[in-house]
Design a protein that fits this description.
Length: 204
Amino acid sequence: MSKSSKSTNVVWHESTITRAEREAMHKHKGAIIWFTGLSGSGKSTLSHAVEDILHKKGCSTIVLDGDNIRHGLNGDLGFSDDDRVENIRRIGEVAKLFVEAGVIVLTAFISPFRTDRDRVRGLVTPGDFIEVFCDASLDICEQRDPKGMYKKARAGVIKEFTGISSPYEAPEHAELVIDTGAADLATCAKLVDSYLKQHHIVHR
């Protein structure tokens, strides 16, 4: 985006309803649960399993999934390093809005670069960003290969594929590291739910 096309003369308008009032209505805190990991590590599956648990408790939730977002909001972006950065920047801003609305937003993005994930963390209050590293090895992710992407990447059909021809920077200080390559889905989801209760995001 060129400088001439950027927004100017804009003023932030404060809402008359506070975040605390929205959270009181929802009966839980707003938060970003940021699932990161290689393609095939179980991010989307786990995020939806956790949402199912939270929904049954009466929580207000939304899942932002990588593929779904690229169908709409980020449909104009490719997979170059610059586009990956912009992809996560936009998602971070959207997730921040949900947090201000008192919603628990679960995101499922490879988000390969630490600086991009840290930038999203910096958008919200400490404690609002919960990084969950879906720690499945490349070998296991390739064995799963649910969309046949690794096979295409190995064949050179897909360029700039994370883990093969583009780097993935694993979190160094994630709130949760879950072995999604070995643990079953119910166990993984329970770990996330337990964290949310222990840190008073949800109350039951």
